[in-house]
């Protein structure tokens, strides 16, 4: 059975104190989780050790970083390595969020290197992919997303895929209030799984968790998560309020 996950990406929001309260609020309302139903919280680097300490002892809820360096260590001012994240008790790292691709020029080749670093340190990768509006309007989204996955992840051995979670996030739906319809989400998730199946076979594809991200909220999460190939969500704005995030967790 493949894992279902609801992951909150706080982006560059919340002070340390606000983050502490937010995590406390989430823990206070969290339903029982299991190894097949997990929650992930991705605050800023500054919050990570605090959040990991708060979550310690709570099963199946993990701390994630929003990014990491493609370098192992050394003179890279401002960067944080996978090894340092691991030493802080971090379980997941988000790689290739569209904001990293767009504002920081991250390429598929760079993301492949980052993925390797995260896996080498025994953490899980949440690898983001998704098309811009112009690509959706031209109806070429399948090829666009396939290229991101192929160039970012298809150098991996089949065994590594048990540590990969994909997040499909159409860029036109991120932070815009415009959600992909459940049919659009299902169609793309089905396509992604087929692409992975063609490369790695049915076992890898069927066990792969594929999250949807883009203006997901309590009011639309249940419909999205009911799609057969949608295994949960990567949540931005709605992860910043405990009640909204918990509403989405409940839909899982
Ligand atoms: C995101 O940035 O990963 C995201 C899905 O944002 P939002 O939920 O705010 O659209």
- Sheet with the most strands, sense and barrel status: 8 strands, parallel
Which spans have pLDDT < 50 for at least 5 consecutive residues? none
Q: What's the Cα radius of gyration?
A: 17 Å
Please identify which CATH superfamily we are dealing with.
Aldolase class I
Written account of the structure:
The protein has 252 residues and is α/β, with parallel strands linked by helices. Helix 1 links the parallel strand 1 (4-9) and strand 2. The model has no long low-confidence stretch (mean pLDDT 97). It has a single domain (4-251), classed as Aldolase class I (TIM Barrel, Alpha-Beta Barrel). It is 43% helix and 16% strand. An 8-stranded parallel sheet has the order 7-6-5-4-3-2-1-8. The chain is globular, with a radius of gyration of 17 Å. It starts with a strand and ends with a helix.
Task: Describe the structure in brief.
By secondary structure, the chain is α/β, with parallel strands linked by helices. It has helices at residues 16-29, 48-55, 82-87, 98-103, 108-120, 133-137, 141-153, 182-200, 202-207, 218-225, 242-251; strands at 4-9, 37-42, 61-65, 92-95, 124-129, 164-168, 209-212, 232-235. It has a single domain, classed as Aldolase class I (TIM Barrel), CATH 3.20.20.
Strands, helices and their partners?
Elements: E1 4-9, H1 16-29, E2 37-42, H2 48-55, E3 61-65, H3 82-87, E4 92-95, H4 98-103, H5 108-120, E5 124-129, H6 133-137, H7 141-153, E6 164-168, H8 182-200, H9 202-207, E7 209-212, H10 218-225, E8 232-235, H11 242-251
Parallel strand pairs: 1-2, 1-8, 2-3, 3-4, 4-5, 5-6, 6-7
Phosphoenolpyruvate is lined by residues 9, 169, 174-175, 213-216, 234-238.
């Amino acid at each position: 059975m493949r894992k279902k996950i609801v992951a909150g990406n706080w982006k560059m929001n919340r002070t340390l104190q606000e983050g502490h309260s937010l995590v406390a609020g989430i823990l206070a309302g969290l339903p029982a989780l299991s190894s097949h139903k997990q929650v992930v919280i991705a605050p800023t680097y500054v919050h990570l050790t605090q959040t990991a300490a708060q979550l310690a002892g709570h099963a199946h809820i993990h701390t994630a970083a929003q990014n990491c360096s493609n370098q192992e260590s050394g003179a890279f001012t401002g960067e944080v390595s996978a090894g340092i994240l691991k030493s802080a008790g971090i379980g997941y790292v988000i790689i290739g969020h569209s904001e990293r691709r767009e504002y920081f020029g991250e390429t598929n080749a760079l993301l492949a290197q980052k993925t390797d670093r995260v896996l080498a340190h025994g953490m899980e990768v949440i690898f983001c992919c998704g098309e811009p509006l112009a690509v959706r309007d031209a109806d070429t989204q399948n090829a666009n997303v396939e290229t991101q996955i192929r160039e970012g992840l298809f150098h991996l051995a089949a065994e590594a895929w048990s540590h990969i979670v994909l997040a499909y996030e159409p860029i036109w739906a991120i932070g815009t209030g415009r959600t992909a319809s459940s049919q659009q989400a299902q169609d793309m998730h089905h396509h992604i799984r087929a692409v992975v199946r063609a490369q790695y076979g049915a076992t890898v594809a069927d066990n792969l968790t594929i999250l949807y991200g883009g203006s997901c909220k309590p009011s639309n999460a249940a419909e999205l998560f009911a799609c057969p190939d949608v295994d949960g969500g990567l949540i931005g704005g709605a992860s910043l309020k405990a009640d909204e995030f918990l509403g989405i967790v409940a839909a899982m």
